[in-house]
Queue: 2 jobs
Job 1
Amino acid sequence: MISQQQLKIATRGRGLYRLDDQLGRTVRESGIRTGLCHVFVQHTSASLLICENADPQVGRDLEAFLARLVPDGDPLFGHADEGPDDMPAHIRSVLTKMDISLPIVEGRCGLGTWQGVYLYEHRAHAHQRRVLVTLTGE
Amino acid sequence: MISQQQLKIATRGRGLYRLDDQLGRTVRESGIRTGLCHVFVQHTSASLLICENADPQVGRDLEAFLARLVPDGDPLFGHADEGPDDMPAHIRSVLTKMDISLPIVEGRCGLGTWQGVYLYEHRAHAHQRRVLVTLTGE
Amino acid sequence: MISQQQLKIATRGRGLYRLDDQLGRTVRESGIRTGLCHVFVQHTSASLLICENADPQVGRDLEAFLARLVPDGDPLFGHADEGPDDMPAHIRSVLTKMDISLPIVEGRCGLGTWQGVYLYEHRAHAHQRRVLVTLTGE
């Protein structure tokens, strides 16, 4: 069985946006009990990742790390048409990836206790992001 | 056809733990000849990756690189409840990812000659890690 | 339905090689309308990623970033049998990953407008790279 659905995520600028509830609902509605939940962000300046879900400081530390690793406005970058966060957003997305696959176990995403699934908006300003969810299984 | 199985990996602290044998056995037992082997670690401080499988120096160099990139005890990090390796373990996991999908070819994982599949334990101390394997194919 | 095919990509040394056309053809020939396109590079010194497809400067900036992050000939690395780009190629591949899964939507790869799929050759010299494409869906 295959089921595909597009989610729209309105971001308010750089940071993590949790997707667990929307993914869980999509899996539930599909009726799939065992299988895979593939999630894909159709952009090159936002990504998908799993992060610790309990302490909000983890997301802040991750952002501090990425901001140091890929500094906005770095003179190394020639591509800056859309501002100092343009090229860093592409690199952050490459490093954290735009696709993720989760197991479906007993009709739910088979996440560990401390795992949350997040869209990472890497641009400074708000964006409307399209996320395509493809569920396979039985 | 879908088959799902949980592996338990006892780590002895930070480092790479090869999974090829256990994954190969799981694929063989499923009877699937052509398909995909999805592997997922249900934690936020361990990850899954493919690495060169012949020279143990590669793993040591990768560890040296990650230790320099994401230093334990970095004052940048506010989240340190479980020690100086706590937040670095989360970031290393985000950078190297918790999910991986391998092709199944003629009843085996379709790895290249030099590819090995590894669990990367990012915490300093020993942990029991749950890895969920989902096989699809025919 | 499952379909598997091997692509051979002749690289001319370090850099990005676009795969969209070959992947699109493989999806079209399979007849699959809805599903997943899993792509896997059977090496440990080349990787697969999605990158902005319009401005060639993005690829140059990404290369400049990776060259700074994982310098060729870094004395940190003990594994250098095949030259100063040997270990950096392994690390770049680990950071950008060897597997990627794309959604298949209405018989095509469901990429966003600005997304291109690339093989990243991380070795300085030309190589012949094997890429295994596994399509599932209906």
Note: DSSP finds three helices and eight strands in chain B.
Job 2
Amino acid sequence: MSNDYVAMWKELGLNLEAHDALLSVLGNGYKDIYMSQKNRPEGMGYFDFVMSEVHGLRIKELMDERAQGRKIIGSYCVFVPEEIVLAANATLVGLCSGADFAIEEVEKYLPRNTCALIKSSFGFKLGKVCPYLESADMVVGENTCDGKKKGYESLGNLIDNLYVMDLPQMKSEQGRALLRGEYERFRSAVEKLTGVAITAESLSKAIKIVNAKRSAIHRMSELRKAVPAPISGLDALLANQVFFYDNPARFTESVNKICDELETRIKEKRGVVPENRPRVLISGCPMAVPNWKLPWIIETSGAVIVGEESCVGERGTRNLTDESAQSVDKMMDAITDRYFQVDCAIFTPNQARLSHIDEMAREYKADGVIHYGLQFCQPYIMESIPVERALEEKNIPALRIETDYGMEDAGQLKTRVEAFIEQLR
Amino acid sequence: MSNDYVAMWKELGLNLEAHDALLSVLGNGYKDIYMSQKNRPEGMGYFDFVMSEVHGLRIKELMDERAQGRKIIGSYCVFVPEEIVLAANATLVGLCSGADFAIEEVEKYLPRNTCALIKSSFGFKLGKVCPYLESADMVVGENTCDGKKKGYESLGNLIDNLYVMDLPQMKSEQGRALLRGEYERFRSAVEKLTGVAITAESLSKAIKIVNAKRSAIHRMSELRKAVPAPISGLDALLANQVFFYDNPARFTESVNKICDELETRIKEKRGVVPENRPRVLISGCPMAVPNWKLPWIIETSGAVIVGEESCVGERGTRNLTDESAQSVDKMMDAITDRYFQVDCAIFTPNQARLSHIDEMAREYKADGVIHYGLQFCQPYIMESIPVERALEEKNIPALRIETDYGMEDAGQLKTRVEAFIEQLR
């Protein structure tokens, strides 16, 4: 990245030395994992550029937006409605939580037995290496799992602009009312932050922008159903990851451009890998940049990933917000209805997720499902048992993986994954 | 226990062989831990009897109640309002979750990294050794922590009468509305189960019965503030444990009888241990029968426990339900207000708990606080870090313990506890 950014990072209060080290690891990891892939769609060049500038140009853009009075809102979860943020002329960005950092410092605030994703969000703060977090005017936490819920109490002592959103635990009428109320409260908070009153016009426009982003991903997902698979799981995951960072319109355009290319590939029956390569569906915990460990192991072990049942994937993007409402109030209803469908494991019961995994396995023609659980993520680790049982009942091979961000278990994971893939041939 | 009970246990579908083994372990544990104590109040003889008949006479009573058409409701949590149950002419009992059982079978349903309390509730079901569970007409689960919330989804497949109560995560207006709504839903469910309509008269009476039970415990707690301590922590814990099992009126009477005795002791300046014995407050996870491991280690290491900041202790019993309401509706409000004050770690933020620990440490003249966290209990383990920090700021020595129901770490725990107590002298 250009040296021009150093002043910006300094201004954001980053620890330059630690940040350099992080960028170097990130860059090398990307080169090893992404750039070594064969037959990538040319359009992925855009994402390669995005990743090479993830702490550079994108941050510069956010800083330029801020200079023009636009506010930046950071989030750690798909339950934070981008529609509301955009409608108030603000920008929503996902915050860093995909790599271990400053572990020793983190464990002064969090128990060792906390999932890597939560530890990572603290590590990026304590290590002062997340320019997204440092440039955010508001950081939104949310009461999803116990780990995050209690973690935000401590994070709130480390940053001065944390806003905590409550979430329901059941998809009951009362649960919906709670979510509706919380989105209303969030709207007020965002309006207060930006000084911009959300109107029917601005909210309607925002709904369309976010839907377009999701629709582009839907189009890509649809194309991944083809045999042979036209794009690697790693590349598709990257698109799903950048979904949380990039300018929405540009993201939509870039994904659609890749889809044009994939359509040509499909017409010409050209796959990213040979047709006989076992197809795997990943299900479970979200994978934030640069957490590419498991997909990388899977795709270098002879399989291709055809779908992600994940927050960073189809769980997060599958539903659109209804666009027909005319008033802010009705639009807020539509937004609530949309997010209330997300079948996160924090909900009980969560039968819809089991159905979705089964449906995805069939539609994406997966030969097997690998359940990805972050160690100590109770909701997903606990659900992995009934998920595995339900898949077995349908004779869909399943493998449960429990891991963290460390590379210590990579060899052991590879052995297990290879054995699983062998069984799918 | 008498052989007369065998037929009853058989009728309840218990695994007699496994149940015998359990009772033998329980009996020996009780003898070693409880009966070896010196200077016990005579009134504890009642609790010795209760414990010797915990799966016998008490179950016989419940079966007799059932024979007369009364319903038995089982619960795992202090958020289930006994007032509502009693008002519908039903009986509430706490369900077994204090010992490891059928671990191998349990781990087919729950991840290994699940807290011992939740595993235990499954173990008692899968091992068929909990006569309370088997005699319950309704079992109430509740959305407290992730572990329990997701665990009940699987437990619901093992028992056919599980009722799940939703709970809020924040003490907001919406959170209170959710709790109020859930208590209303619970009232309807209990009325449906019992066929008894709850009236202002029956509910008012029930509120008074439960308050009397709590007041008896308050009286005992108040007496534990004396120096020297008139009763051991183990004995006081037992009273708090039996609180969940016994007939309420008889329990109240028995605790008050012990209190009369303690008052005499205090007047005569007779302690259960010498005055110079360090005084310890326990704070954290609940301890269900027969989970006496940590208190036993503490009190055989030269300290006396003077209070329990726990669900099985002051967190669970400290607040009374206001008795002044006249209508069922207003009483339901009062019940909601009462339970909404419980400062369980599932709430965020939960600053009230920190204040309560500090207040208890001062009022009970504790020389130090031992935080008891069940391994993998995220809410309490996560709160233990700010708890320790807050205590350190007030110069109150604190020790964080993380353990399970196994005895493998008893030696190591004893070494740590002894070192901590040494530091309090």
Note: Chain A touches chain B through 45 residues (CB under 8 Å).
